[in-house]
Amino acid sequence: MNNKRLFLTGLIQAAGLTVYCTLVSLIFVYGKNIFGNTPGLWASAVFLIIFAMSALICALITLGYPVYVYLRDNDINTAARIAVYTAGWLFLFTLIMLAARVLL
Fold it and tell me: Which residues, at least 6 apart from 35, have a Cβ–Cβ distance to it below 8 Å?
């Protein structure tokens, strides 16, 4: 894989993760409107299940393809570069979202 394709793969993975996290955040923000006022055991259980599922999905989005590349090609350098590019893009997206929050 050339460096440009690895860079683009990192961008796509980071963008997908950013969109996913934003959608989950919308569920948390508008949860009362969606599920009603359900305090207690059930709300806590659903929150923890969504949190655990979200961690799994985030790990798959971020690390799934690098692990696949490593297992398929036995190329740790390419897999590591994809993971580093993804982390870099995520950091950039985080800065953009924080700046948008401060400026808007």
Answer: 43, 46
Choose among 46, 54, 52: nearest CA to 23.
Answer: 54
Do 26 and 103 touch, CB atoms closer than 8 A? no
State pLDDT tens for residues 47-74. 899 999 999 999 999 999 999 999 999 9
DSSP E strands: which ranges in the chain? Answer: none
What's the domain count of the chain? Answer: 1
Strand ranges inside 21-102, DSSP E = none
| Token couple for 88 | 């870099």
100: buried, middle or exposed (CB in 10 Å: 19+, 13-18, 0-12)? Answer: exposed
* pLDDT tens, position by position, 29-52: 887 787 777 677 877 888 899 999
Q: How far is CA 74 from the centre of its chain?
A: 25
